[in-house]
Amino acid sequence: MDPHDIRALVSVRAKSFFDQLPGIRDGRPDSVHDARVACRRLRELLPLLAADRRASHAERVLVDAGDQLGRVRDLDVMIALLNGKEEAVPVAALAIASARRALRIRLVDERRALVKKLEDLELGRIAVLRKHKRRSARRLVRRLLPNGNGCDAMLRDRIGLRAHRLRTAIVDSAGLYFPNRLHSTRKAMKKLRYVVEAADDLRIWRPPHLLSDLRKAQDILGGLRDAAVLRDSVGSLPDSSVPEQEHTALLNALDADVVRAHESYLDRRGRLLAIVDACDRFVVRTSRSHKAVHAVLTLVRRAG
Question: pTM of this prediction?
Fold first, then answer.
């Protein structure tokens, strides 16, 4: 893939999405997860093709697909968490089995709904993004100029926007446990990660350790949300055949998971704010660089 070629990267991301469709039809949790990630990565790139109507059409399809993928993914994760609790909380064996049975019934229905949804959606609007023509060297150079058609400036601005939203989310969530605010922080974190990944793939910006640190923090908040969602689901699935003490033991274990994950997140808040600062410096530095290059090119043109 050519450096700075946004359409080539969009083509790769679209292919990643379609590669997961056979696994989704087979009910494979990893395919659902990978397709969901591919959806989000694509959605973060498509605004950079704002002049292409195919991009906006594809984005609407990706939103619908992502919503249904998310419902299936949540159930897959909750069942996996319950499987892990069998050894950690053996005294809640009946409660775990009961909750897992109820969630599996829901999962079967949601998997069927997902396959039907994907069949009904106009996936051709995404498939067209896989078509990519190689650029000539002259066109590529023109796209890299500050006043050309390149995506560098838009990508830089998007990194700045995502960094600002992450900083705001971190400040709003403060040091207390606000589930909805922490979920917003996680979403802001993922969106920043995906746009920085795009900059990395396009060789525009490759900050050391930044992406791995974002992934670690995202995993922590992901674990927090998964435990909290499972806790709420278990609480709404009462089974009279399960002893009350087992039900309580499972809820207490999930509450403890939430507390531990929140503490781990708080330990990483400083690093997250440092990441936001690094993004801000990149945006300002490259903005000044673009202005300087543009000024030089202007003088050259006038001299010529």
Answer: 0.83
